[in-house]
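Amino acids appear as letters; backbone shape is given numerically. Here is one record.
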Amino acid sequence: MPIVTSKFLREQNVYTRAELRKTFSIIDASLNNGIFQPKNHDSVWLFVTFEKTADRVPYTDVLDGDILRFAGQTKGRADSKIIDHVADSNELVLFHRTRKYEYPGAGFRYEGRFEYVDHVPGPPNAFTLRRVRRSE
């Protein structure tokens, strides 16, 4: 039976990829990507770092209240997971940090569920997502 990740995480808590790997028994190395869907999950995980390190492409990503604007992957291989998440019955969950070592262990703050609004075709695609409030 598929897992919905948001049921097991608390908004505003910080999680490292190592903690997520252990909690959800993930062995897939693609957990280190910005867009990741764990096996047997009805969830797509988005990892967004706003201030990129020098070895990363300096895309401009912004979380403004309930709106997230961010660049998809350079080659866009996983972007359909975002665009089609409703049709595929998947939730989008956001892990966010301002810079890589903002939190211990290079962790991310869990922001909760988001939904696709639109995108401007790239490469990379420029996405707009909106936070899903708990009552939605």
Remarks:
- Residues 3 and 94 are 16 Å apart (CA to CA).
- The longest strand covers residues 108-120.
- The chain has two helices and eight strands.
